[in-house]
Amino acid sequence: MVPQLEIHQVSGLIAIHQTIAKIHIQQLPANMTIHQQPATMRIHASEGQLAIDQSEQFAEEGLMSSGQLEKQAAQDGHNAALAYIAKTAADGDQLKSDFKNKNAIADMAAKNSQPPVHDFNVGLIPNTPIHISYKSAPVQIDVQANNPQIHASPNPVRFHTELGKVRISMARYPSITIQVAGTQFDSKI
User: Fold this and answer.
1) Backbone dihedral region of 113: left (phi > 0), alpha (psi from -120 to 50 degrees) or beta?
2) Sorted alphabetically, which Pfam families does this protein's record hold (predicted)?
């Protein structure tokens, strides 16, 4: 038998160890101050005019000035005088027409002795409207805005880095083993 060669091969292994690089960035917020004066506002307005005329309602209730009371009393007296003259004239005409009637004067006296009938009414609301007028006044508004004063100072950026590393090593070295096999013979005769 012919000797044989046996070859055993072991592959090599490479080990890679890696440390990742790191970077740290830090920046504090900027320092900022803002200052602004309040706006200035001026409003110019004159007062509006409101007029309420209740003289007619007061007159209905008898609340009048002395001049108005005098005019009213004079008018009432004038009307009463005219009414009396008209009544006297009517009574005279009746006497003239009833001259033959002996009881004409007694009938007239009985008619005139009756109390006058007065109208009675409860009035809580005036019969005439209240006159209201309003005249508005112009309004002038002046606004002066003040600009803001802004002061900003940025803070520097701070960098801190950690370098990355790659370490390569042999986890297993390669090897080759060669042996001669079958060098022993068994012989039987």
Assistant:
1) alpha
2) DUF6470 (PF20074)
> Residues 6 or more apart from 182 whose CB is under 8 A from it?
1, 2, 3, 4
Does 32 reside within a domain? yes
Query: What phi and psi values does residue 185 have, to the nearest 5 degrees?
Result: -115, 145
- The parent domain of residue 150 ranges over 1-36+145-183
Q: Quick check: is 3 in a domain?
A: yes
The pLDDT confidence band at residue 74, using thresholds 50, 70 and 90, is very high
Residue 84 lies in a domain: no
Burial classification of residue 76, based on how many CB atoms lie within 10 Å of its CB (0-12 exposed, 13-18 middle, 19 or more buried):
exposed
Q: How many domains does the chain have?
A: 1
Tokens linked to 118: 């007065």
Q: Percentage of the chain with pLDDT > 70?
A: 90
Tokens 């409207």 correspond to 129
Over 80: is that where the pLDDT of 95 sits? Answer: no
Q: CA 60, CA 126: separation in Å to the nearest integer?
A: 8
CA–CA dist 62, 64 (Å, integer): 6
